Amino acid sequence: MTDHDAPLVTAEQAAEMCAVSLRTWRTWNSYGRVPRPVRIGRTLRWRRDELNAWIAAGCPRQREWDAAQA
User: To bridge 45 with a disulfide, which of 7, 8, 33, 51 should be the other Cys (CB 3.0-4.6 Å)?
Assistant: First the structure.
C-alpha cells in the first residue's frame, strides 16, 4: 500500500490535498473548519475518503459537515 492508497493521511498530506500550506491546514483544524481528525496516540490523522467527500462538498465547516453526515 502506497501513501496515496493509505486510508489515513497526515496533516501534511491533507494540506496538499486541499492545495493549502501546512500552517493554513493547522489553523483551519484549530478553528473547526475541517473534518474531525482521528487521534492515534498523540498524532492526528484524517480519513482520506472523508476528505475527498468534504472537498467535493465545497469544504463546509466542521459543524455543518458533521450535521450532513449524521
Answer: 8
**Per-residue model confidence as pLDDT tens digits over 24-51:** 999 999 999 999 999 999 999 999 999 9
The answer to the question of residue 2 being in a domain is: no
In a domain, 35, yes or no: yes
How many beta carbons lie within 10 A of that of residue 43, not counting itself? 11
Query: H-helix or E-strand containing 37?
Result: none
Instruction: Judge contact between 61 and 31, C-beta under 8 A.
Output: no
CB distance 8 to 49 below 8 Å: no
Describe the strand order of the beta sheet including 38-40 as a list of residue ranges.
8-9, 43-47, 38-40
Tell me if 3 is assigned to some domain. no
